Amino acid sequence: MSAILKDAPQQVPQLTPMRDADLAEVLEIESAIYSHPWTRGNFADSLGAGYQCWIWRRGGELCGYFILLVAAGEGHLLNLSVAVARQRSGHGSALLVEAMRMARARGAQHLFLEVRPSNLGAKALYRRFGFRQVGVRPGYYPDHAGREDALVLTLAL
Ligand SMILES: CC(C)(COP(=O)(O)OP(=O)(O)OC[C@H]1O[C@@H](n2cnc3c(N)ncnc32)[C@H](O)[C@@H]1OP(=O)(O)O)[C@@H](O)C(=O)NCCC(=O)NCCS
C-alpha cells in the first residue's frame, strides 16, 4: 500500500473500523469537501446498519474514510473521502483498493458507485481504476441550482 502513497511513505495510515467517537472528525472532513455533506445521522445509520465503515488514520490524523455496503454479490461504495490537506497524495487510491479488496472478500463480483458529473477529480480517479459508466440517475443529488444527475459507475472485481 505504501507504493501508492506519495506523502511520507515511511508512515502508512492504518485502516480501522469507524466508531461513534470518530464522527466529529469525520464530519469536519465531510463538511469541508462536499457541498451537501452527509449528516451525523447518515453516518450513524450506516454504522447501525452494519455497513463497512472504515477510517484511514495516520498517527492522530484522520486522512480519510469510506462506507461500503455489500449485499447479494454486489458492493456499493456509498462514501469515499479524503481530507483536503491529504488529497492528490494517493490516499483516495489506497482507500479504493481497500474497499475493492473488502468487497471482493465478502463475495461481491462488482463494485458500484454514484458520482456527480461535475466531480472531475473523482471521475478521473475512478476512470484510472477502470470503472465504466452503466447508467444515470436523473436529479439524484441536490445542488445549488436544484438537482444534479448521478452517473452510475461499476467495476468488475
Ligand atoms: C475524489 C477523492 C476521494 C480522491 O482522493 P485523492 O486522495 O485526492 O486521490 P489520489 O491522490 O489517489 O488520486 C489518484 C488519481 O486520481 C485522479 N485525481 C484525483 N483527484 C483529482 C483531481 N482533483 N483532479 C484531477 N484528477 C484527480 C488523478 O489521476 C490522480 O492521480 P495523480 O495525482 O497522479 O494525477 C478526493 O479528492 C476527495 O475526497 N474528494 C472530495 C470527496 C469526493 O468527491 N468523493 C468522491 C465522491 S463519488
Structural class: alpha+beta
Average pLDDT works out at 95
What is the makeup of the main sheet? 7 strands, mixed
Order of helices and strands: EHHEEEHEHEE
Give structural attributes.
seven-stranded mixed sheet, 4 helices, binds coenzyme A
Give a nutshell description of this structure.
The protein is an alpha+beta fold and 157 residues long.
Please explain how this structure is put together:
It is a single chain. With 157 residues, the protein is α+β, with helices and mostly antiparallel strands. The protein has helices spanning 23-33, 40-48, 91-105, 120-128; strands at 14-17, 52-58, 61-71, 74-82, 110-115, 132-143, 146-156. The chain contains four helices and seven strands; from the N terminus they run βααβββαβαββ. The chain is globular and about 40 Å long. Bound molecules: coenzyme A (COA). The site of coenzyme A has 20 residues, from strand 4, helix 3, strand 5 and helix 4.
SSE layout:
Blueprint: E1 14-17, H1 23-33, H2 40-48, E2 52-58, E3 61-71, E4 74-82, H3 91-105, E5 110-115, H4 120-128, E6 132-143, E7 146-156
Parallel strand pairs: 4-5
Antiparallel strand pairs: 1-2, 2-3, 3-4, 5-7, 6-7
The structure holds coenzyme A.
